[in-house]
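Example 3.2
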Amino acid sequence: MRALLLAVLLLSGCTTAYGDGMGDILRGQGIAAREPDYDVPYVPTPEPVVDAMLAMAQVGANDTLIDLGSGDGRIAIAAARRGARASGIEIDAALVERARRNAALYTLTDRARFTRANLFDVPLRDASVVTMYLLPKINLALLPRLLTELRPGTRIVTHAFDMGEWRADEERLVADRRVFLWIVPAVAGGDWLATLPDGRQVPLHVDQRFQDVTGTLGNAAINGTLRGTAIRFTAAGRSYTGTVGEATITGDGWRAVRLP
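Structure, written as tokens:
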């Protein structure tokens, strides 16, 4: 059912590079000229940016983190040091070995594991956090998988580049580096039958574009947002909050059932 969300996606538009050599890479110069076999050349993320990425995602001991394009392993290792289980995916065999050695230095080989693989071939569903420092075209190519494979509430953090028209839930500037956070939204779009606090039943129609929702509740227009499974909207001057499931929305004094 979450695939319904993809029907409204327009995968276009990204920020440009800045400050760390990525400008040369996007122009086909510098590091990119020396690594023609890889879609994403290796440029390490500075440690302060790593710390900010993990802080924005609130990475902790209950998390499973996947770092796509893990390089020397610094993001996955930093996550493991916070107690998370981390997996780094990297296509360069030499970098995979370097990351494994780095994890061994911190005695974290049981919590930070590294695999040589194409990042497009790796299952993502088990992740509660996904981190990336990839080129804009790779971000956009991954976007459909991120929206459909990851569970609602999963946090996605990128360094430098955004997700086109999917507006970030949070953006932070670390020195001259931009870091973006998204929370994967539940699929709320479609038609529901809502039972209001006064017992009346009215149709609820939700139009969803990423985390933004519009539509109607009875005859009243609605406007609101999603953050993971949490929905919040206003209708006729009243605020509604609830939790979106596959077939129900459970709110404070109200509920809705998805119509077939």
